[in-house]
């Protein structure tokens, strides 16, 4: 009898652990992690224009939840003058990205290019001052996403990244830059942690009832004497 009680207790603990694990996965709506790779500025000496090439790497780290990115996603590139004054910032290019779906634990690679008119005339004053070791840009990404779960939770994302470009080579000083969210955090709040307890108990009860019904069914089928 003691051995049977230990086995049942062990099964109960295993079921509760499984229920708690799945509860945490279902409640953890982590926003995607976005990286800016290979930011390059290629100039055209004939037209004084330039083309900015960049790669977006979007990672969905959720184990069970897919993310739908609503159409469109807006990307803006801003030139940051050496004065560092927000009023003197110059928006030099914009790009629209079509919406898409990203499954759980998937990585999405997006290659973009933006043509900039008279980019180097905009930065010429900085060149003449002899301080143009690097040219500073700011990349902003704005998107609306939905977590594909029961309630389809919707979130508005504002992500930003500063980029330093070598004035001689036109390539970014850092090859990979993690973009930062303007507000909020992926970390769990107190409410979500408190919700895991009753929900995990509910899942545990459901799993336990399912196991009990399965046990009763197989007992009836295999142990019931046939006529």
From TrEMBL:
Swiss-Prot/TrEMBL keywords: Membrane, Transmembrane, Transmembrane helix
Primary location recorded for the protein, binned into one broad class: membrane
Any GO BP annotation: defense response to other organism
Compartment annotation: Membrane
Keyword presence, Calcium: no
Highest rank taxon of the organism: Eukaryota
Signal peptide: none
TM stretches of this protein: 7-27, 201-224
InterPro entries: NDR1-like
CC terms in the record's Gene Ontology section: plasma membrane; plasmodesma
Protein name per the record: Late embryogenesis abundant protein LEA-2 subgroup domain-containing protein
Source organism of the structure: Lactuca saligna
Biological classification of the source: Eukaryota, Viridiplantae, Streptophyta, Embryophyta, Tracheophyta
């Amino acid at each position: 009898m003691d051995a049977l009680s230990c086995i049942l207790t062990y099964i109960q603990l295993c079921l509760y652990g499984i229920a708690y694990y799945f509860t945490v996965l279902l409640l953890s709506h982590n926003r995607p992690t976005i990286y800016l790779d290979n930011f390059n500025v290629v100039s055209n000496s004939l037209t004084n224009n330039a083309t900015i090439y960049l790669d977006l790497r979007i990672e969905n780290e959720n184990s069970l939840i897919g993310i739908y990115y609503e159409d469109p996603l807006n990307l803006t590139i801003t030139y940051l003058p050496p004065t560092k004054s927000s009023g003197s910032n110059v928006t030099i290019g914009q790009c629209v990205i079509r919406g898409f779906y990203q499954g759980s634990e998937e990585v999405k690679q997006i290659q973009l290019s933006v043509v900039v008119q008279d980019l180097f005339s905009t930065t010429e004053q900085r060149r003449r001052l002899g301080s143009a070791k690097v040219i500073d840009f700011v990349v902003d990404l704005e998107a609306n996403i939905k977590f594909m779960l029961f309630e389809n939770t919707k979130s508005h994302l504002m992500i930003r990244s500063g980029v330093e470009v070598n004035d001689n080579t036109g390539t970014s000083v850092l090859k990979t830059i993690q973009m930062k969210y303007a507000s909020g955090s992926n970390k769990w709040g107190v409410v979500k942690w408190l919700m895991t307890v009753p929900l995990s108990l509910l899942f545990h009860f459901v799993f336990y009832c399912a196991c009990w019904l399965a046990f009763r069914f197989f007992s009836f089928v295999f142990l019931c004497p046939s006529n």
